[in-house]
Design goal:
Blueprint lengths: L9 H10 L26 H4 L17 E8 L5 E6 L6 E5 L4 E5 L6 E6 L11 E6 L3 H4 L1 E7 L4 E7 L14 E7 L10 E3 L5 E4 L18 E5 L16 E4 L4 E6 L5 E5 L5 E6 L25 E4 L5 E7 L2 E6 L5 E7 L2 E2 L4 E3 L7 E6 L4 E6 L15 E6 L1
Antiparallel strand pairs: 1-25, 2-3, 3-4, 4-5, 6-7, 7-8, 8-9, 10-11, 11-12, 12-13, 14-15, 15-16, 16-17, 18-19, 19-20, 20-21, 20-22, 23-24, 24-25
Length: about 400
Amino acid sequence: MIVHRRAVPAVVATAALLLTAGLTAGCSSGGGGSPDGARSTAPRGTASGTTPSAGPTESAPPAKGSVKVLRTVAEGLKTPWGVAPLPGGGGLLVSSRNDGTLTRIDEKTGKKTVLGTVSGVSPAGEGGLLGIALSPDYASDHMIYAYFTSASDNRIVRVLYDEQRPPGDQLGAPDTVFKGIPKGFIHNGGRIEFGPDGMLYAGTGESGSKGLAQDKESLGGKILRMTPEGEPAPGNPFPNSPVYSYGHRNVQGLAWDDKQRLFASEFGQDTWDELNAIKPGDDYGWPKAEGKSSEAGFHDPIAQWHTDDASPSGIAYVDGVIWMAGLKGQRLWRVPLRGTQASAAPQAFLTGKYGRLRTVLPADGDKVYLVTSNTDGRGSPKKGDDRILELQVK
Protein backbone atom coordinates (compact mmCIF):
# COMPACT_ATOMS: atom_id res chain seq x y z
CA MET A 1 0.00 0.00 0.00
CA ILE A 2 1.44 3.36 -1.01
CA VAL A 3 0.12 6.35 0.86
CA HIS A 4 1.38 9.93 0.85
CA ARG A 5 1.19 10.95 4.50
CA ARG A 6 1.38 14.20 6.39
CA ALA A 7 1.30 15.07 10.05
CA VAL A 8 -2.20 14.98 11.53
CA PRO A 9 -3.14 18.13 13.43
CA ALA A 10 -4.03 17.28 17.01
CA VAL A 11 -7.33 19.12 16.82
CA VAL A 12 -8.39 17.05 13.80
CA ALA A 13 -7.48 13.78 15.48
CA THR A 14 -9.28 14.70 18.69
CA ALA A 15 -12.41 15.85 16.88
CA ALA A 16 -12.50 12.70 14.79
CA LEU A 17 -12.23 10.48 17.86
CA LEU A 18 -15.09 12.32 19.51
CA LEU A 19 -17.21 11.98 16.40
CA THR A 20 -16.60 8.29 15.79
CA ALA A 21 -19.58 7.45 17.95
CA GLY A 22 -21.83 9.22 15.48
CA LEU A 23 -20.57 7.44 12.38
CA THR A 24 -22.36 5.09 10.08
CA ALA A 25 -24.47 2.10 10.90
CA GLY A 26 -25.47 -0.56 8.41
CA CYS A 27 -27.86 -3.42 8.10
CA SER A 28 -28.80 -6.30 5.89
CA SER A 29 -32.11 -6.96 4.28
CA GLY A 30 -32.41 -9.99 6.45
CA GLY A 31 -30.58 -12.66 8.39
CA GLY A 32 -28.93 -12.69 11.76
CA GLY A 33 -25.49 -12.47 13.26
CA SER A 34 -25.35 -8.77 14.21
CA PRO A 35 -27.66 -6.62 16.32
CA ASP A 36 -28.67 -4.60 13.25
CA GLY A 37 -29.45 -7.66 11.14
CA ALA A 38 -26.25 -7.80 9.08
CA ARG A 39 -24.84 -11.25 8.37
CA SER A 40 -21.31 -10.30 9.29
CA THR A 41 -18.48 -11.76 11.29
CA ALA A 42 -16.00 -9.13 10.14
CA PRO A 43 -13.69 -7.67 12.79
CA ARG A 44 -15.09 -4.74 14.68
CA GLY A 45 -13.11 -1.56 15.28
CA THR A 46 -13.58 1.46 17.49
CA ALA A 47 -15.94 3.19 15.09
CA SER A 48 -18.27 0.26 14.43
CA GLY A 49 -18.36 -0.77 18.07
CA THR A 50 -19.97 2.51 19.09
CA THR A 51 -22.31 3.08 16.16
CA PRO A 52 -26.05 3.03 16.92
CA SER A 53 -28.35 0.87 14.82
CA ALA A 54 -31.66 1.94 13.38
CA GLY A 55 -34.20 2.24 16.14
CA PRO A 56 -37.73 0.81 15.88
CA THR A 57 -39.23 4.28 16.36
CA GLU A 58 -37.66 5.74 13.23
CA SER A 59 -40.31 6.78 10.75
CA ALA A 60 -40.25 6.16 7.03
CA PRO A 61 -41.17 8.49 4.14
CA PRO A 62 -44.09 7.58 1.89
CA ALA A 63 -43.59 4.34 -0.04
CA LYS A 64 -44.22 6.16 -3.33
CA GLY A 65 -42.78 9.48 -4.36
CA SER A 66 -42.62 11.85 -7.30
CA VAL A 67 -40.13 13.65 -9.53
CA LYS A 68 -40.74 16.89 -11.38
CA VAL A 69 -38.17 18.29 -13.82
CA LEU A 70 -38.02 22.02 -13.09
CA ARG A 71 -35.43 23.20 -15.61
CA THR A 72 -32.19 22.58 -17.44
CA VAL A 73 -29.44 24.30 -15.47
CA ALA A 74 -26.70 23.87 -18.08
CA GLU A 75 -25.99 21.92 -21.23
CA GLY A 76 -23.17 21.23 -23.66
CA LEU A 77 -20.94 19.59 -21.02
CA LYS A 78 -18.33 17.03 -22.07
CA THR A 79 -17.93 13.87 -19.95
CA PRO A 80 -19.12 15.50 -16.70
CA TRP A 81 -18.45 13.37 -13.62
CA GLY A 82 -18.00 15.02 -10.24
CA VAL A 83 -19.95 18.05 -9.00
CA ALA A 84 -19.36 20.28 -5.98
CA PRO A 85 -21.60 23.24 -5.08
CA LEU A 86 -19.77 26.42 -4.12
CA PRO A 87 -21.01 28.06 -0.90
CA GLY A 88 -23.51 30.89 -0.91
CA GLY A 89 -24.96 30.10 -4.32
CA GLY A 90 -21.58 30.68 -5.96
CA GLY A 91 -22.16 28.11 -8.66
CA LEU A 92 -21.49 24.45 -9.33
CA LEU A 93 -18.03 23.08 -10.02
CA VAL A 94 -18.04 20.22 -12.55
CA SER A 95 -15.18 17.92 -13.51
CA SER A 96 -14.68 16.66 -17.07
CA ARG A 97 -13.43 13.08 -16.97
CA ASN A 98 -11.74 13.15 -20.38
CA ASP A 99 -10.61 16.78 -20.60
CA GLY A 100 -9.29 16.92 -17.05
CA THR A 101 -10.85 20.36 -16.57
CA LEU A 102 -12.89 21.98 -13.82
CA THR A 103 -15.73 24.24 -14.92
CA ARG A 104 -17.86 26.60 -12.87
CA ILE A 105 -21.55 26.67 -13.78
CA ASP A 106 -23.68 29.64 -12.80
CA GLU A 107 -26.72 27.76 -11.53
CA LYS A 108 -29.02 30.68 -12.38
CA THR A 109 -27.92 31.46 -15.95
CA GLY A 110 -26.12 28.26 -16.96
CA LYS A 111 -23.01 30.23 -17.95
CA LYS A 112 -19.91 28.02 -18.07
CA THR A 113 -16.44 29.24 -17.03
CA VAL A 114 -13.48 26.88 -17.37
CA LEU A 115 -11.26 27.33 -14.31
CA GLY A 116 -8.37 25.34 -15.73
CA THR A 117 -6.94 21.87 -16.22
CA VAL A 118 -5.85 19.60 -13.37
CA SER A 119 -2.36 18.56 -14.37
CA GLY A 120 -1.38 14.90 -14.22
CA VAL A 121 -4.73 13.46 -15.31
CA SER A 122 -4.35 10.49 -17.67
CA PRO A 123 -7.82 9.62 -19.03
CA ALA A 124 -8.47 6.18 -20.52
CA GLY A 125 -11.49 3.91 -20.37
CA GLU A 126 -13.40 4.68 -17.18
CA GLY A 127 -10.49 6.66 -15.73
CA GLY A 128 -9.71 10.36 -15.79
CA LEU A 129 -10.75 13.32 -13.64
CA LEU A 130 -13.55 11.89 -11.50
CA GLY A 131 -14.95 13.00 -8.13
CA ILE A 132 -14.40 16.42 -6.58
CA ALA A 133 -15.12 17.90 -3.15
CA LEU A 134 -14.52 21.21 -1.43
CA SER A 135 -12.16 21.43 1.52
CA PRO A 136 -13.93 21.59 4.92
CA ASP A 137 -12.04 24.90 5.31
CA TYR A 138 -12.90 26.14 1.83
CA ALA A 139 -13.95 29.57 3.10
CA SER A 140 -10.36 30.22 4.17
CA ASP A 141 -8.20 27.94 2.00
CA HIS A 142 -10.16 27.78 -1.32
CA MET A 143 -8.96 24.23 -1.88
CA ILE A 144 -10.70 21.75 -4.20
CA TYR A 145 -10.03 18.04 -3.70
CA ALA A 146 -10.06 15.84 -6.79
CA TYR A 147 -9.81 12.10 -7.41
CA PHE A 148 -8.15 11.23 -10.71
CA THR A 149 -6.39 8.58 -12.73
CA SER A 150 -2.72 9.35 -13.34
CA ALA A 151 -0.25 7.48 -15.52
CA SER A 152 0.49 5.11 -12.64
CA ASP A 153 -2.42 5.02 -10.20
CA ASN A 154 -5.60 6.65 -8.93
CA ARG A 155 -4.91 9.44 -6.47
CA ILE A 156 -6.43 12.32 -4.55
CA VAL A 157 -4.99 15.81 -4.87
CA ARG A 158 -6.03 19.28 -3.81
CA VAL A 159 -5.72 22.40 -5.92
CA LEU A 160 -6.08 26.06 -5.08
CA TYR A 161 -8.94 27.88 -6.82
CA ASP A 162 -7.91 31.51 -7.31
CA GLU A 163 -10.83 33.53 -8.66
CA GLN A 164 -8.61 36.58 -9.07
CA ARG A 165 -6.71 34.96 -11.93
CA PRO A 166 -8.08 34.91 -15.50
CA PRO A 167 -10.45 32.07 -16.51
CA GLY A 168 -8.56 29.03 -17.71
CA ASP A 169 -5.68 29.76 -15.34
CA GLN A 170 -7.43 29.75 -11.96
CA LEU A 171 -6.13 26.41 -10.64
CA GLY A 172 -2.91 25.97 -8.75
CA ALA A 173 -0.55 23.01 -9.04
CA PRO A 174 -1.95 19.77 -7.60
CA ASP A 175 -0.79 18.89 -4.08
CA THR A 176 -0.94 15.10 -3.69
CA VAL A 177 -2.86 14.08 -0.57
CA PHE A 178 -3.17 10.33 -1.18
CA LYS A 179 -1.85 7.97 -3.86
CA GLY A 180 -1.40 4.32 -4.72
CA ILE A 181 -5.04 3.38 -5.44
CA PRO A 182 -4.97 0.70 -8.19
CA LYS A 183 -5.94 1.93 -11.68
CA GLY A 184 -7.40 0.06 -14.60
CA PHE A 185 -9.24 0.56 -17.86
CA ILE A 186 -12.35 -0.21 -15.79
CA HIS A 187 -13.41 0.03 -12.13
CA ASN A 188 -11.54 3.09 -10.93
CA GLY A 189 -14.21 4.10 -8.39
CA GLY A 190 -13.75 7.84 -7.99
CA ARG A 191 -16.37 9.36 -5.72
CA ILE A 192 -15.00 11.46 -2.86
CA GLU A 193 -16.94 13.25 -0.15
CA PHE A 194 -16.18 14.87 3.19
CA GLY A 195 -18.33 13.21 5.83
CA PRO A 196 -20.14 14.87 8.72
CA ASP A 197 -17.12 13.94 10.87
CA GLY A 198 -14.83 16.12 8.72
CA MET A 199 -12.99 13.10 7.33
CA LEU A 200 -12.46 12.44 3.61
CA TYR A 201 -14.14 9.30 2.21
CA ALA A 202 -13.28 7.73 -1.15
CA GLY A 203 -15.00 4.95 -3.07
CA THR A 204 -12.52 2.83 -5.04
CA GLY A 205 -12.80 0.03 -7.59
CA GLU A 206 -10.85 -3.20 -7.86
CA SER A 207 -9.53 -2.08 -11.28
CA GLY A 208 -10.66 -5.33 -12.88
CA SER A 209 -8.53 -7.45 -10.51
CA LYS A 210 -11.23 -9.13 -8.44
CA GLY A 211 -8.95 -10.41 -5.69
CA LEU A 212 -8.02 -6.90 -4.56
CA ALA A 213 -11.48 -6.37 -3.07
CA GLN A 214 -10.89 -9.01 -0.37
CA ASP A 215 -7.27 -8.00 0.28
CA LYS A 216 -7.33 -5.61 3.22
CA GLU A 217 -3.77 -4.54 2.38
CA SER A 218 -4.91 -3.27 -1.02
CA LEU A 219 -6.64 0.08 -1.60
CA GLY A 220 -8.76 -1.34 -4.45
CA GLY A 221 -12.40 -2.35 -3.99
CA LYS A 222 -12.77 -0.37 -0.78
CA ILE A 223 -14.30 2.61 0.91
CA LEU A 224 -11.42 4.59 2.37
CA ARG A 225 -11.59 7.06 5.26
CA MET A 226 -8.78 9.52 5.87
CA THR A 227 -7.99 12.90 7.36
CA PRO A 228 -7.94 15.93 5.04
CA GLU A 229 -4.14 15.47 5.02
CA GLY A 230 -4.39 11.90 3.71
CA GLU A 231 -3.63 10.00 6.94
CA PRO A 232 -5.71 6.99 8.05
CA ALA A 233 -8.52 8.55 10.06
CA PRO A 234 -8.66 8.02 13.84
CA GLY A 235 -11.15 5.30 14.75
CA ASN A 236 -10.80 3.33 11.52
CA PRO A 237 -11.50 -0.41 11.96
CA PHE A 238 -8.04 -1.64 10.92
CA PRO A 239 -4.94 -0.23 12.67
CA ASN A 240 -2.95 2.34 10.69
CA SER A 241 -5.08 1.72 7.59
CA PRO A 242 -7.39 3.99 5.60
CA VAL A 243 -9.62 0.99 4.78
CA TYR A 244 -13.10 1.57 6.17
CA SER A 245 -14.99 -1.27 4.43
CA TYR A 246 -13.99 -3.86 1.86
CA GLY A 247 -15.32 -6.50 -0.53
CA HIS A 248 -16.57 -3.86 -2.99
CA ARG A 249 -16.45 -4.13 -6.79
CA ASN A 250 -16.71 -0.48 -7.84
CA VAL A 251 -18.10 2.19 -5.51
CA GLN A 252 -19.20 5.44 -7.15
CA GLY A 253 -21.86 6.79 -4.80
CA LEU A 254 -21.53 8.03 -1.20
CA ALA A 255 -24.15 9.80 0.94
CA TRP A 256 -25.04 10.25 4.61
CA ASP A 257 -28.48 10.38 6.15
CA ASP A 258 -29.54 12.88 8.81
CA LYS A 259 -28.14 10.62 11.55
CA GLN A 260 -24.68 10.54 9.96
CA ARG A 261 -25.01 6.98 8.61
CA LEU A 262 -23.20 6.24 5.38
CA PHE A 263 -24.73 4.65 2.27
CA ALA A 264 -22.90 3.60 -0.90
CA SER A 265 -23.86 2.43 -4.38
CA GLU A 266 -21.91 -0.31 -6.11
CA PHE A 267 -21.71 -1.76 -9.61
CA GLY A 268 -22.38 -5.48 -9.90
CA GLN A 269 -20.95 -7.66 -12.64
CA ASP A 270 -23.68 -9.55 -14.47
CA THR A 271 -26.39 -10.05 -11.89
CA TRP A 272 -26.87 -7.53 -9.09
CA ASP A 273 -26.07 -3.87 -8.51
CA GLU A 274 -26.24 -2.79 -4.88
CA LEU A 275 -27.15 -0.05 -2.46
CA ASN A 276 -25.36 -0.69 0.82
CA ALA A 277 -25.54 0.68 4.34
CA ILE A 278 -21.89 0.92 5.34
CA LYS A 279 -20.59 -0.38 8.65
CA PRO A 280 -16.90 0.08 9.49
CA GLY A 281 -14.79 -3.05 9.01
CA ASP A 282 -17.49 -5.07 7.26
CA ASP A 283 -17.02 -7.28 4.19
CA TYR A 284 -19.48 -6.56 1.37
CA GLY A 285 -18.77 -9.81 -0.42
CA TRP A 286 -17.16 -9.17 -3.79
CA PRO A 287 -16.03 -11.30 -5.59
CA LYS A 288 -17.36 -14.13 -3.42
CA ALA A 289 -20.87 -12.69 -3.38
CA GLU A 290 -22.80 -10.40 -5.71
CA GLY A 291 -26.00 -9.04 -4.23
CA LYS A 292 -27.64 -10.79 -1.28
CA SER A 293 -25.88 -13.90 -0.07
CA SER A 294 -26.79 -16.83 2.15
CA GLU A 295 -23.15 -17.12 3.23
CA ALA A 296 -22.29 -15.87 6.70
CA GLY A 297 -19.73 -13.10 7.02
CA PHE A 298 -20.95 -10.83 4.23
CA HIS A 299 -22.94 -7.64 4.72
CA ASP A 300 -25.98 -7.81 2.45
CA PRO A 301 -27.20 -4.82 0.40
CA ILE A 302 -30.36 -3.05 1.50
CA ALA A 303 -31.55 -2.98 -2.13
CA GLN A 304 -30.38 -4.64 -5.34
CA TRP A 305 -31.11 -4.32 -9.05
CA HIS A 306 -30.37 -6.24 -12.22
CA THR A 307 -27.44 -4.52 -13.91
CA ASP A 308 -29.53 -3.56 -16.97
CA ASP A 309 -31.83 -1.59 -14.67
CA ALA A 310 -29.23 0.40 -12.74
CA SER A 311 -25.42 0.34 -13.05
CA PRO A 312 -25.41 3.01 -10.34
CA SER A 313 -23.06 5.94 -9.95
CA GLY A 314 -23.93 8.91 -7.72
CA ILE A 315 -26.42 8.95 -4.84
CA ALA A 316 -27.97 11.68 -2.70
CA TYR A 317 -29.99 11.67 0.52
CA VAL A 318 -33.05 13.95 0.79
CA ASP A 319 -35.75 13.74 3.48
CA GLY A 320 -35.49 10.04 4.26
CA VAL A 321 -34.87 8.93 0.68
CA ILE A 322 -31.79 7.82 -1.23
CA TRP A 323 -31.85 8.97 -4.86
CA MET A 324 -29.58 6.89 -7.10
CA ALA A 325 -28.45 7.73 -10.65
CA GLY A 326 -28.37 4.83 -13.11
CA LEU A 327 -26.01 4.71 -16.09
CA LYS A 328 -26.93 1.63 -18.12
CA GLY A 329 -30.37 1.68 -16.52
CA GLN A 330 -30.92 5.28 -17.66
CA ARG A 331 -33.21 6.07 -14.76
CA LEU A 332 -33.30 7.72 -11.35
CA TRP A 333 -34.11 5.36 -8.50
CA ARG A 334 -35.93 6.35 -5.30
CA VAL A 335 -35.20 4.21 -2.23
CA PRO A 336 -37.19 5.21 0.90
CA LEU A 337 -35.48 4.37 4.18
CA ARG A 338 -36.44 3.45 7.70
CA GLY A 339 -33.18 3.69 9.57
CA THR A 340 -30.65 1.68 7.56
CA GLN A 341 -33.19 -0.46 5.74
CA ALA A 342 -35.23 0.14 2.62
CA SER A 343 -38.79 0.68 3.84
CA ALA A 344 -40.44 0.00 0.46
CA ALA A 345 -39.56 -1.28 -2.99
CA PRO A 346 -37.35 1.07 -5.06
CA GLN A 347 -39.23 3.25 -7.53
CA ALA A 348 -37.87 4.32 -10.94
CA PHE A 349 -38.25 7.73 -12.59
CA LEU A 350 -37.19 9.35 -15.90
CA THR A 351 -36.58 5.94 -17.48
CA GLY A 352 -34.80 6.47 -20.80
CA LYS A 353 -35.79 10.15 -20.95
CA TYR A 354 -32.35 11.70 -20.45
CA GLY A 355 -30.10 8.72 -21.16
CA ARG A 356 -27.28 7.76 -18.83
CA LEU A 357 -27.32 9.42 -15.41
CA ARG A 358 -24.02 9.95 -13.57
CA THR A 359 -24.37 12.21 -10.52
CA VAL A 360 -27.17 13.36 -8.24
CA LEU A 361 -26.66 15.81 -5.41
CA PRO A 362 -28.91 17.75 -3.04
CA ALA A 363 -29.91 21.31 -3.93
CA ASP A 364 -32.17 23.59 -1.87
CA GLY A 365 -35.04 22.07 0.09
CA ASP A 366 -36.70 19.22 -1.80
CA LYS A 367 -34.63 19.73 -4.94
CA VAL A 368 -31.67 17.87 -6.44
CA TYR A 369 -29.31 18.41 -9.33
CA LEU A 370 -29.00 15.53 -11.79
CA VAL A 371 -26.08 15.19 -14.22
CA THR A 372 -26.29 13.11 -17.41
CA SER A 373 -23.44 11.04 -18.86
CA ASN A 374 -24.10 10.49 -22.55
CA THR A 375 -20.73 11.73 -23.85
CA ASP A 376 -18.74 9.14 -21.89
CA GLY A 377 -18.31 6.78 -24.85
CA ARG A 378 -21.12 4.46 -23.83
CA GLY A 379 -24.10 6.71 -24.41
CA SER A 380 -25.91 8.11 -27.44
CA PRO A 381 -25.50 11.89 -27.16
CA LYS A 382 -28.39 14.08 -28.22
CA LYS A 383 -28.48 17.79 -28.85
CA GLY A 384 -27.62 19.57 -25.60
CA ASP A 385 -25.79 16.67 -23.97
CA ASP A 386 -24.44 16.49 -21.46
CA ARG A 387 -26.61 18.52 -19.14
CA ILE A 388 -27.43 19.35 -15.54
CA LEU A 389 -31.10 19.26 -14.56
CA GLU A 390 -32.83 20.63 -11.49
CA LEU A 391 -35.52 18.33 -10.11
CA GLN A 392 -38.11 18.58 -7.38
CA VAL A 393 -38.25 15.25 -5.55
CA LYS A 394 -40.54 13.80 -2.91
